[in-house]
């Protein structure tokens, strides 16, 4: 079945460092891909998404490109801040049934130190 | 903010007792979802609804039931709680066309089963 694999954390970086969180997927068809972020004690928030191959999603300085040839959707940010500390989830849409459903990776904890 | 509230936010209960969690939305969205979040598993879909009285099972539905008697409320019931159901439960809604799969999440309910 469809699945998402993302790098295990925690990822610890200093402020202003470059961030990459790897995400690869297995899917039939052409799913939409998402990154969600969860700040401590809160629910998940959509960070960015891409709906077809070669699309680039971007938001708040984060970017991810839908790479069909490598089945990847890696999250990047050029210069992280302490406020970016959170858990990041990669997800894909899974068609079937009355609605598409999201399949999530296990999450990657990012800790940014001043 | 998609106007989603969950109640209660925290609950401690004993094995074998029934528990009902409530998700309430204020914007009449058709599609609603219940997920559980566990370390090492990310989020997993329990049940979802695609309209009043229309529900279907997700990946981890055993031991859970749901009901949706009106558009704004989606209830998750554990008929006889077990320790394996200790988790954080999130409600979500789809905004717009569900094929785009942008889901918005509530703040979560932390459930502890002793």
Overview of this protein structure:
Chain A is mostly beta strands and 114 residues long. Chain A contains no helices and twelve strands. Chain A has strands spanning 3-6, 11-14, 19-21, 23-26, 33-38, 44-50, 56-59, 62-65, 75-77, 86-94, 101-104, 108-113. With 114 residues, chain B is mostly beta strands. In chain B, strands 2, 4, 5, 6, 9, 10 and 11 form a seven-stranded mixed beta sheet that branches. In chain B, strands 1-3-8-7 form a four-stranded antiparallel beta sheet, with no helix packed on it. In chain B, strand 4 (32-38) and strand 5 (42-51) form a beta hairpin. Chain B starts with a strand and ends with a strand. Classes of the chains: A mainly beta (114), B mainly beta (114). The A-B interface holds A 4, 32, 34, 36, 42-46, 49, 51, 89, 93, 95, 97-102, 104-107 and B 31, 33, 40-45, 48, 50, 54, 56, 58, 90, 92, 94, 98-108.
- Distance, first to last CA of chain A: 41 Å
Terminal CA distance of chain B reads 33 Å
Task: Output the radius of gyration of chain B.
Answer: 13 Å
Helix content of chain A: under 10%
How many individual β-strands of chain B? 11
Give the % helix of chain B. under 10%
Structural class by SSE content of chain A: mainly beta
Strand content of chain B: over 45%
Indicate the low-confidence ranges of chain B by residue numbers.
none
């Amino acid at each position: 079945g469809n699945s998402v694999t993302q790098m295990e954390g925690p990822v610890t970086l200093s402020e202003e460092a470059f961030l990459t969180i790897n995400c690869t997927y297995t899917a039939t068809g052409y799913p939409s891909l998402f990154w969600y972020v969860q700040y401590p004690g809160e629910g998940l928030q959509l960070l960015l998404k891409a709906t077809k191959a070669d699309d680039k999603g971007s938001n708040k300085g984060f970017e991810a490109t839908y790479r069909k040839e490598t089945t990847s959707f890696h999250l990047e940010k050029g210069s992280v801040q302490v406020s970016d500390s959170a858990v990041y989830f990669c997800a894909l849409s899974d068609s079937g049934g009355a609605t598409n459903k999201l399949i999530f990776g296990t999450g990657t904890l990012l800790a940014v130190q001043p | 903010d998609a106007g989603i509230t969950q109640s209660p936010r925290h609950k401690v209960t004993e094995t074998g007792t029934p528990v009902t969690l409530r998700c309430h939305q204020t914007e009449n969205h058709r599609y609603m979802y219940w997920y559980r979040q566990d370390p090492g598993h990310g989020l997993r879909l329990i049940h979802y609804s695609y309209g009043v009285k229309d529900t279907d099972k997700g990946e981890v539905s055993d031991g859970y039931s749901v009901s949706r008697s009106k558009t704004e409320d989606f209830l998750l019931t554990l008929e006889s709680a077990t320790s394996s159901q200790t988790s954080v439960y999130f409600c979500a809604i789809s905004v717009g066309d569900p094929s785009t799969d942008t889901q918005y999440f509530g703040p979560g309910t932390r459930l502890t089963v002793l």
